[in-house]
């Protein structure tokens, strides 16, 4: 068969195809067999569509039916909110559709009130604890799934309700622990100032005549708001008086044994004498003596030629077994007025001069030279001198001496042929009254106070400092030192650790009574994170090894992993609080927080985190890094205490031209292998 001329018409093999197209075109706009337009009969919730050359009515998305007489809404929520919308949701059906809402305590990751889950949106827990003050004063917020709970912070106790509590449903309030007045201790008195807050220490000293053989007596304010009493007690001191003897005719000496000797013991010496001459009256006298000597002695003003009974005992409240001695004084004619005398001390600063002569009627002049020094002060010196004239045989002179001072007193009998002198030493005790007032703290670690003393006189102050941390039970700091100052308003700054509660006892060495003040130091930046720095160029990112930091400067609350664009590294501030989660950012141009772990959840040794593992750490999603971007990954440690927050940061890695992580690479490899298997299967099926 010959070939036809060009342009004569289409090839014969195309004619059937053209015929079919013409038929299709003719039926496309034609009415139905019954003469009606099918599209005109579609239901209001249906759409007219052409299928296999015919026009048919199909119900719209969200409706089911025949498309012409019936299109009924399809209830997508009938399978349950969890199946349709995901966890923590409620499903709401609408005509031809539905929408999802997160339950109370959760929010949608698209940051909108409603969502459709086909865009990857889901409900994540809302951290209500990001709102400060939610649990009222003294409360600590703990986030839970879909809600939160309130607990009282350390140093506070719940009142008027349960714990944990919710501020909208419970009336619980957190009140600062205040133990009030410390308990009374039998035979003991409370000394100094004390704090009634948690960890406050009340100190006691035994009353005169009592002692605590086991050591110092203290009571501590506990976390229950009550004082923990000491197991030690004050027991009575029984003084035993032995070896009483007479010397120099009218002087008495004895020894004592009372275990632990207090600085001073008061004695009562009862004297009763009967003259040999029955016509003379009886001589009775009581002498008081206070001394810290273990071999006390006293010289008495006794009559010559008299039988005496001397009873020696301790003054109340101290008890003793009395000692009695009897003796006879020499006759007057056996004694000569040779200018010899002796001196006894009583009432701490008073002297009694006892001459051997009993001759009455002669006047005598004594010269006193007094020199006082304090062993703990190089520049302290108290010197005075005066003359004293008397007719008495046993005159008494009381000196005006400073407390806590060692004195040398030289007494010379003027006019005596031999110029007889007696030298004695007196150690005055510390004052029983308080010499420090108006003590206060400033600049967190410094103290100032008012000294009640003679102007321009140097004083030494003894410091005893105890430091404790509620969050670090093994921590304990104790310091003892002294300073000297002649100022009436001294100041001192102490070397204290941050984040610590301190009790400071301050005592002037010239006084027995200390003052106690409490100080709390604020936290400082936690130690820098211990990380090994990596620089990654297009390769997989290694795992972050997180090591637990030591709580040197305050309690550590959390560890955070921040992902920033590399360009922001130079301007990033570690104290920045504005870092948001991955889903709350419209873009990652400002960076985001990839992980947050509470300090209690970090093991003591170490843990590893893979950046981009698609897991949640706390409330933050660890999203994969975008390929081809440059990132800086920072590890931040946060400390928080007493409404103060401090941070320390370290750059863990710089990522340039970011690639897939090891986990992502494994996923891509598995996916590629699956594609190859499917293609191979289809090839065999086609054959």
UniProtKB/TrEMBL annotation:
Domain EGF-like: 35-72, 73-112, 125-162
Gene3D superfamilies for this protein: Complement Module, domain 1 (2.10.70.10), Laminin (2.10.25.10)
Regions crossing the membrane: 662-684
Annotated signal peptide: 1-29
Annotated keywords: Disulfide bond, EGF-like domain, Glycoprotein, Membrane, Repeat, Signal, Sushi, Transmembrane, Transmembrane helix
Topology in the lipid bilayer: Single-pass type I membrane protein
Superkingdom of source: Eukaryota
GO cellular component terms attached to this protein's record: membrane
UniProt protein name: Sushi domain containing 1
């Amino acid at each position: 068969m010959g070939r036809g001329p060009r342009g004569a018409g289409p090839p014969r093999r195309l004619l059937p195809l053209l015929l079919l197209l013409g038929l299709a075109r003719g039926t496309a706009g034609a009415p139905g067999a019954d003469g009606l337009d099918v599209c005109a009969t579609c239901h209001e919730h249906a759409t007219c569509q052409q299928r296999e050359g015919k026009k048919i009515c199909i119900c719209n998305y969200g409706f089911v039916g025949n498309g012409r007489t019936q299109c009924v809404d399809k209830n997508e929520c009938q399978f349950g909110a969890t199946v349709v919308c995901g966890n923590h949701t409620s499903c709401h059906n609408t005509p031809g559709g539905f929408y999802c809402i997160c339950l109370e305590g959760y929010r949608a990751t698209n940051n909108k009130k409603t969502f459709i889950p086909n865009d990857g949106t889901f409900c994540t827990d809302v951290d209500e604890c990001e709102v400060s003050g939610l649990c009222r004063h003294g409360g600590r917020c703990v986030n839970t799934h879909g809600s939160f709970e309130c607990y009282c912070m350390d140093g506070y106790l719940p009142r008027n309700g349960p714990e944990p509590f919710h501020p909208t449903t419970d009336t619980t309030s957190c009140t600062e622990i205040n133990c009030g007045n410390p308990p009374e201790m039998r035979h003991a008195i409370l000394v100094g100032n004390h704090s009634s807050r948690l960890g406050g220490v009340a100190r006691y000293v035994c009353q005169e005549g009592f002692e605590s053989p086991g050591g110092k007596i203290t009571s501590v304010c506990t976390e229950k708001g009550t004082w923990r009493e000491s197991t030690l007690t004050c027991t009575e001191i029984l003084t035993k008086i032995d070896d009483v003897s007479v010397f120099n005719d009218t002087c008495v000496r004895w020894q004592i044994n009372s275990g632990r000797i207090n600085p001073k013991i008061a004695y009562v010496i009862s004297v009763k004498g009967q003259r040999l001459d029955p016509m003379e009256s009886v001589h009775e006298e009581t002498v008081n003596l206070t001394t810290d000597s273990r071999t006390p002695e006293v010289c008495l003003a006794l009559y010559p030629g008299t039988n005496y009974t001397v009873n020696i005992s301790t003054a109340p409240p101290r008890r003793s077994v009395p000692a009695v001695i009897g003796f006879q004084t020499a006759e007057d004619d056996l004694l000569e007025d040779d200018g010899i005398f002796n001196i006894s001390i009583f009432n701490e600063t008073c002297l009694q001069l006892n001459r051997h002569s009993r001759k009455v009627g002669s006047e005598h002049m004594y010269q006193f030279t007094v020199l006082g020094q304090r062993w703990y002060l190089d520049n302290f010196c108290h010197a005075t001198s005066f003359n004293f004239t008397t007719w008495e045989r046993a005159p008494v002179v009381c000196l005006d001496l400073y407390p806590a001072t060692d004195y040398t007193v030289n007494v010379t009998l003027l006019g005596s042929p031999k110029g007889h002198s007696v030298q004695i030493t007196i150690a005055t005790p510390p004052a029983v009254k308080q010499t420090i007032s108006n003590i206060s703290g400033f600049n967190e670690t410094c103290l100032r106070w008012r000294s009640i003393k003679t102007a321009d006189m140097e004083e030494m102050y003894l410091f005893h400092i105890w430091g404790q941390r509620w969050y670090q039970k093994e921590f304990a700091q104790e310091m003892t030192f002294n300073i000297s100052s002649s100022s009436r308003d001294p100041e001192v700054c102490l070397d204290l650790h941050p984040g610590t509660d301190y009790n400071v006892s301050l005592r002037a060495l010239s006084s027995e009574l200390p003052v106690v003040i409490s100080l709390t130091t604020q936290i400082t930046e936690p130690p820098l994170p211990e990380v090994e720095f990596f620089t990654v160029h297009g390769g997989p990112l290694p795992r972050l090894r997180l090591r637990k930091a030591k709580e040197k400067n305050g309690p550590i609350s959390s560890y955070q992993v921040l992902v920033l664009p590399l360009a922001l590294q130079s301007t990033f501030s570690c104290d920045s609080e504005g870092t948001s989660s991955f889903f709350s950012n419209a873009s990652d141009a400002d960076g985001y927080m990839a992980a947050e772990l509470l300090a209690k959840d970090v093991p003591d040794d170490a843990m590893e985190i893979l950046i981009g593992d698609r897991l949640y750490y706390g409330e933050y999603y660890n999203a994969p890094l975008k390929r081809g971007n440059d990132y800086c990954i920072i590890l931040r440690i946060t400390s928080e205490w007493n409404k103060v927050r401090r941070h320390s940061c370290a750059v863990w890695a710089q990522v340039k031209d970011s690639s897939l992580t090891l986990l992502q690479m494994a996923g891509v490899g598995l996916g590629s292998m699956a594609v190859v298997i499917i293609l191979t299967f289809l090839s065999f099926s086609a054959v």
